[in-house]
UniProtKB/TrEMBL annotation:
InterPro entries: AAA+_ATPase (IPR003593), ABC_transporter-like_ATP-bd (IPR003439), ABC_transporter-like_CS (IPR017871), ABC_transporter_ATP-bind (IPR050166), P-loop_NTPase (IPR027417). Keywords: ATP-binding, Nucleotide-binding, Transport. Gene3D superfamilies: P-loop containing nucleotide triphosphate hydrolases. The keyword Acetylation does not apply. Signal peptide: none annotated. Residues 5-242 form the ABC transporter domain. It holds the Pfam family ABC_tran. It comes from Nocardioides zeicaulis. This is ABC transporter ATP-binding protein. Transmembrane segments: none annotated. One of its GO terms (molecular function) is ATP binding.
Length: 273
């Protein structure tokens, strides 16, 4: 199951207080942002710090509403969060008093699924992320990578049409991160879910995305969308990340980001924010 996502002319303005000034000022986080994600597509988003990546994800998830423009998922304007859209954040958001199995079941309770079915479906999705043997462990008994696997299983368990991921692997060590990236591609192939994935890591963006959207800051807009054509069916022993094509994509996106960072120095973005 998958859905098309369309953001058209999206603007997001926040009211912020500048340093030493009690009055509220308007801060334009996004301005006339247009982006389409096709049903079943895996799109990654990169951009300078503070350019509005999380804001875009919040709008698609329905956690916030845009100041202007429209966010449409599967032909319907997004007005609130819904079970058609799952979200995975960087920080592990598991309930500490529930086991891995219990955490996945908790998400299924919201769907009204019967208790016995919840147990079966939770077990299926823990299996999908390779955690069958850890189903009865509590979050504090799991590694960071395992906790993120539970979070992914939980978000996939109610079979959302769209999976929104905000730097989900940002807190993990490099090896665990690569392994989860590979697993996520497999899961995406199996489920066909539309995935929007935010990252600061250019390699991660190129490895995962069929397209990489590069955002500019102040105001946040889509600067360019780069199509990625990598051999995703390559055998296990082929290191896709070391191929010349991969290096070319990495360099293309690196150059775009470098140019954007030159234009909007980080200190300026953060001072105004
Ligand atoms: N609720 C809010 N109120 C005021 N300003 C906000 C709010 N949410 C976000 N902002 C500002 O909007 C801008 C975009 O924030 P956002 O978190 O979307 O950026 P980002 O690209 O995800 O950042 P990072 O890469 O550093 O995680 C930032 O300048 C931020 O300070």
């Amino acid at each position: 199951m998958s859905s098309r996502i369309e953001l058209s002319g999206v603007g997001q303005v926040f009211q912020v207080r500048a340093e030493g000034d009690k009055r509220l000022h308007e801060f334009v986080a996004l301005d006339s942002l247009d982006l389409t994600v096709e049903a079943g597509e895996f799109l990654t988003i990169v951009g300078p710090s503070g350019c509005g990546k999380s804001t875009v994800l919040d709008l698609v998830s329905g956690l916030t509403r845009p100041t202007s423009g429209r966010v449409v998922v599967d032909g319907r304007v997004v007005t609130e969060p819904g079970l058609d859209r799952g979200v995975v954040f960087q920080q592990y958001t598991l309930l500490p008093w529930r086991t891995a199995q219990g955490n996945v079941e908790f998400a299924l309770e919201a769907t009204g699924m019967k208790r016995r079915d919840r147990a079966r479906v939770a077990a299926e999705f823990l299996d999908l992320v390779g955690l069958s043997d850890f189903a009865q462990r509590y979050p504090h008994e799991l590694s960071g990578g395992m906790k993120q696997r539970v979070a992914i299983a939980r978000s996939l368990s109610y079979q959302p049409e769209v999976l929104l991921m905000d730097e989900p692997f940002g807190a993990l060590d490099a090896q665990t991160r690569e392994r989860l990236q590979e697993e996520l591609v497999q899961i995406w192939r199996r489920t066909g879910t539309t995935i929007v994935f935010i990252t600061h890591d250019i390699d991660e963006a190129v490895y995962l995305g069929q397209r990489v959207a590069v955002m500019s800051a102040r105001p946040g807009r889509i600067r360019e969308v780069v199509d990625i054509h990598l051999d995703r069916e390559a055998p296990d022993d082929v290191d896709v990340r070391s191929t010349p094509e991969f290096a070319r994509y990495r360099h293309e996106i690196w150059s775009l980001l470098r140019e954007l960072n030159r234009r909007a120095p980080l200190e300026e973005v953060e001072r105004v924010a």
